[in-house]
Known about the structure:
Blueprint: E1 21-30, E2 33-42, H1 44-50, H2 53-56, E3 57-60, E4 63-65, H3 72-84, E5 94-95, E6 111-117, H4 132-135, E7 138-143, H5 144-153, H6 159-169
Amino acid sequence: MRISGGERFSYDVVTLRALDAVIIAAHFERDGRRHVLLCGSIRPPVYWRDRDPGRARLWEVPAGLVEPGETFRVAAARELFEETGARVSPDALFELGPPLLPAPAMIAEVHVFFHAAIDPAALVEPPGDASPLERAAVLTTLPLDEALALCASGEIRDSKTELALRRLRDVP
């Protein structure tokens, strides 16, 4: 690479067919407290970094890539259903702050954040996206304040999840 005719240098860049991602904070009220739905999935890069199977499963809010031709809301509704079994209309997803570039030095991916109220009693078996990672995923619900405490303690280590939860905390 060369910028403005300057010195040549090497630079690693990641490109994907589906580049942008949606992040969904799915929530519901129980006993006067807001609860959130989290997915626990194995993340191979985390395993290869730590070589610790116990740390390779990350707790995250549902998220996924936007397929070519999809709107962000349609992608968010699809991902939420695939990963959690929660059916919501794209119109029932609300923006949760501005989109962000999570790692602009490496990839031009944009993260678009949404939140949606769900009915936990209406959840069905998540169909997944046919990937082995989603077949091995597990779900849990936690009160929002407890999930944020797990972020603060380092038990939840995913930055997009922490940001989504912090943004959700500020939604009335």
